[in-house]
Amino acid sequence: MMFDGDALKNYLIGEGVSKVGYARVDVDDFPNLNYAIALVLKLPKKAIGALLSDEFKKYWDIFHKELDRLTEISLKAEQLIKDNGYDAFALTMKRNECDMEKLLSKIPYKTLATSSGLGWIGRSALFVCEEYGSAVVLLGILTDMPLESGESITDSFCDDCEECQKACPVGAINPTKWNLRLDRSDIIDIEACSQYVIDQYKLGSGCSKCLSNCKLTQEYYKK
After folding, report:
1. Are 155 and 179 in contact (CB under 8 A)?
2. Cα radius of gyration (the chain)
3. How many helices (H) and strands (E) are present in the chain, helices listed first?
4. DSSP for 30-86, written as a single string
5. For residue 112, which of 132, 130, 96 has the smallest C-alpha distance?
6. DSSP state, residue 173
7. Are 89 and 30 in contact (CB under 8 A)?
8. Residue range 50-70: average pLDDT?
């Protein structure tokens, strides 16, 4: 059986990934890996329930369990691609050097996801997809395996919804809707957001109100 993009997607979905997309990329650190595989894993509904109940430890325990699961899948897929004669590099959290103060990864997973057509960026600067809102875990894989790219999404589908903006306790979310031509600072005050998150974490609490109050997250939760 030929190993191609369809076979790879079927493998990833079979392993439990919720959505898979492909995109062409140009990453300085990986000049020979010009294709990206975007991985989206939905969070269990109990994770959203934990946020709504302010049970942040429970939420993060669930989140990290799902992240570990997606990490394992991405590493297995990396090896599968290599076994079929191509090069690949799974962008795990440890490999992607996330800056917690700036809330920014070396290669943003949501950029890979929007570029491959899996969703868009909400007013909150979180990734949003129609099926699960922002209740997702994201990872990616870089490869030189030729893949058919999805249609990149370059504008927000949030329309007039402002639920995440209204829910933000520090008013960090600006009214401006995301599009690819904007900087992140145009839609969110990331310093105010990150400082509040850090302060809440030190108090043993947290904040993911933009995630839990997203209209599409709520629709997924209530189904």
Report:
1. yes
2. 17
3. 9, 6
4. -TT--EEEEEEEEPPHHHHHHHHTT-HHHHHHHHHHHHHHHHHHHHHHHHHHHHTT-
5. 96
6. B
7. yes
8. 94
The answer to whether 172 and 189 are in contact (CB under 8 A) is yes
Amino acid at 19: K
SS3 1: coil
At 27, the pLDDT band (50, 70, 90 cuts) reads confident
| Prediction pTM value | 0.91
Contact 188, 176 (CB under 8 A): no
Q: Determine if residue 103 is left, alpha or beta; phi over 0 gives left, psi from -120 to 50 gives alpha, anything else beta.
A: left
| 61's tokens | 């325990």
Residue 81 has which token pair? 């691609």
Task: Return all residues near 169 (Cβ < 8 A) that are at least 6 apart.
Answer: 196, 207, 209
- Here the tokens at position 186 are 């145009």
Tokens of 119: 């969703």
Burial of 39 (0-12, 13-18, 19+ CB in 10 A): buried
Q: Distance between CA atoms of 211 and 214, rounded to whole angstroms?
A: 6
Residues in the chain: 223
The token pair at 153 is 């999404």
